[in-house]
Amino acid sequence: MEFLHTTDFWIGLVKIVWINIILSGDNAVVIALAARSLPPHQQKKAIFWGSGAAVVLRIVLTVVAAKLLELSFLQIIGGCLLLWIGLQLMTDGDEDGEGAQSGGGLMTAVRTILIADLVMSLDNVIAVAAAAHGNMVLLILGLAISIPLVIFGSTLMIKLMERFPIIILFGAGLIGWVGGETIASDAALHDVVLAHPSLHYVAAVLGALFVVGAGKFLQARAQQNSAAAS
After folding, report:
1. Looking at beta carbons, which pairs linking 167-173 to residues 24 or more positions away fall under 8 Å?
2. Which of 170, 169, 210 is nearest to 80 (CA)?
3. C-alpha to C-alpha distance for 150 and 27, rounded to whole angstroms
4. In angstroms, rounded to a whole number, what is the distance separating the alpha carbons of residues 107 and 87?
5. Angle of helix 166-184 versus helix 103-132 axis, rounded to 10
6. What is the pLDDT of residue 51?
7. Is 209 within 8 Å of 176 (Cβ atoms)?
8. What is the distance between the terminal CA atoms of the chain, rounded to a whole angstrom?
């Protein structure tokens, strides 16, 4: 434990915590969107278990992230998955609350949080791994400290979404943006994006527009079906 008394260890720890504060904003939005339709007591459980399990996944992912990002089509698949998750999160809140009251609703929220965080963290964990310089104790400690930060951010986002529903729209758009970026960052598209750098931003904008546009369409159709049924 001699490394605990070194300046490099504490500097590295501060770097990892700071990186997580900066990079956890979009993850907090995903967690808040996934948990917002649950009753209050289940919201806390979904945030706690989703955040904790997501950090454990990040630790595992950090070890293999660099190799994973070299695989062609992996990020395209992940980006498409994020677009689908964005659509699900945008429309889930409009459904009747009965499903959300059950344990199935809680497990669905935690599963959504894990999948989205796993995809969105592919790039983020590389920055964390670089700050850790191969020190696994530093890496695990830094990511563990980030759990309360993500939990606090998610809880705050849920309260803001309840007060300002427009944030849900922006949150879904953010997930679509990240999904588009993830697709454009795939190794198979590296040369194309390198030749046309603007494609990275075009893909991000299209991803956001797709999630928001398709989500609004699905919401309108669900309302029409509900009105016709009543």
Report:
1. 168/33, 168/36, 168/90, 168/93, 169/90, 169/212, 171/29, 171/30, 171/32, 171/33, 171/89, 172/33, 172/86, 172/87, 172/89, 172/90, 172/211, 172/212, 172/215, 173/86, 173/208, 173/211, 173/212
2. 210
3. 8
4. 18
5. 50
6. 79
7. yes
8. 67
Of 74, 63, 109, nearest to 89 (Cα)?
109
Q: Which of 142, 150, 154 is nearest to 59 (CA)?
A: 142
Range with lowest mean pLDDT among 59-63, 73-77, 161-165, 175-179 = 59-63
The answer, yes or no, to whether residue 189 has pLDDT greater than 60, is yes
Sign of the CA dihedral running 149, 55, 100, 96: positive
Question: What's the rounded Cα separation, in Å, for the pair 203 and 183?
Answer: 8
CA distances 21 to 53, 66, 125, 187, 200, Å, are 17, 22, 13, 27, 24
Closest Cα to residue 78, out of 182, 185, 210? 182
Distance (Å, whole) CA 172 – CA 65: 25
Write b or e for each residue in 33-47: b if 16 or more Cβ atoms lie within 10 A of its Cβ, otherwise e: bbbbbbeeebbbebb
Stated length of the chain: 230
Phi, psi at 54, each rounded to 5°: -65, -40
Q: Name the pTM for this structure.
A: 0.75
| CA pair distance 125, 179, nearest whole angstrom | 17
In whole angstroms, how far apart are CA 104 and each of 51, 94, 107, 142?
18, 17, 5, 32
